[in-house]
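Notes, Module 5: Reading structure tokens.

Key idea: the token line is not a picture. It is a compressed description, and you learn to read it the same way you learned to read a sequence, by spotting repeated patterns. We will look at two proteins. The first is printed below with its tokens.
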Amino acid sequence: MKNELIRNVAIIAHVDHGKTTLVDAMFRQSGMFRDSELSTERIMDNMDLEKERGITIAAKNCSVNIEGVKINIIDTPGHVDFGGEVERALMMADGAILLVDSSEGPLPQTRFVVKKALEGGLKIIVVINKIDRKDARPREVLDEVIDLFISLDATEEQIEFPILYAVGRDGIAKKDMYEDSKDLKPLFEAILKYIPAPEYHTDDYPQVLVTDLNYSDYFGRLAIGKIFNGTIRKNDSLVCISAGNVVKPLTVGNLQIYDGLKLKNVDEAQTGEIIVLSGIEDVKIGDTICNKDHPISLNRLHVDEPVVSMEFTVNTSPLSGRDGKYVQSGRLKERLFKETLKNVSIQVESGEEPNVFIVKGRGE
């Protein structure tokens, strides 16, 4: 069976191909938000570094409601350096939108993310964006996208992808280059038609794969993930299965779902929903939250191994101690190991020398 009231879709694009602008337009045309909530551009880029550089670094979730169907939008980094963010984001999705610039075409970073989406068996909708550019070449770019899919060993079904043309800045999508469209209705229709609804079995016990973590001053550690099976209810007595099949009990203290740009408290959530729950402090990305009488773990999240490493240490120059709030090695260690709780693509180790820490990651 399928939960036809939900679609989970990731948005894939290279840097500057217009992904965040398109997501802004989807928000504006969904009718769910007041103008005051959408007063800024690039709503999903809420980290300081994202705003400064105009790129997506951390995968984030939000939702819109179209024709009674909730569409959970997963904003996915388009850079191989943030590979861990890409892989955990795609674990929550049932399909993806591949956004490609009509002039530049698919670039190397696009290849990495598309490869992960195809390996995950996601249904992909291709959107050729910025067709209003003077140097636009949409037909040639479409051929390049097809060549990309073939080079990545896509199946025949995956290569026969739906195609849309868009001007994301103006909030316009078209099924055909010459179609007279004034909004994103064709894109919303394509999502409802082609992105599969989450599947489930009525007799399945609840299973949630933890794909992100957060912290609340009120509720403590928060586990974020997609419900793969069953229903999760507030105050449920469940267990968390960590690496090595270690089972730890938990009681769902607070349960939330994404409602537009915010979180909404609910008493229960169904299969396919992306939830935020509290009730366990010792939880890590990749853990499974499930029924205590049938503790069956989902496949753990796999992330490509790091390719670069760097040593971090306290400042030993003549200028040390003249600037900075937290300059002790203990503070440095605390900050680095805290990052490993939320960033699955980096590893932190103690160096051979005192006060030296080795950080390994996918990129600089």
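Here is the second protein, with the sequence above and the tokens below, as before.
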Amino acid sequence: MGRLKAMPSRLASMPARLASIGSGPDRLKRRDQNVHWRKWYKTARWKKLRMSVLERDLFTCCRCRRPFSDTSELVADHKTPHRGEEALFWDDLNLQCMCAPCHNTHKQREERSGETRV
């Protein structure tokens, strides 16, 4: 009877960007430390810009058209993904009001597939 060969590691075949931050409860913290532009979301400038976009769009999701009274349920979404480009990140014309469920399902799926819906 022949010997069994060792199974290759599945982690080796994962894209580097996924394997680099790993998993676990502090995964998001490590991601924020590794991606320089993530800190922009924590600035007073961003918070002011986000609120102005939500007000401009009347606290209504651009996708499902539902109005929201709780701003924690809304996201100031970049129409064109900025991918660290500072001018696109801060451009208010590149931002739209979107509810968290639409942003976290439909929009994320579109971005991962390479589609861009404006």
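Summary for the second protein:
- The longest strand covers residues 74-78.
- The chain has a mean pLDDT of 82.
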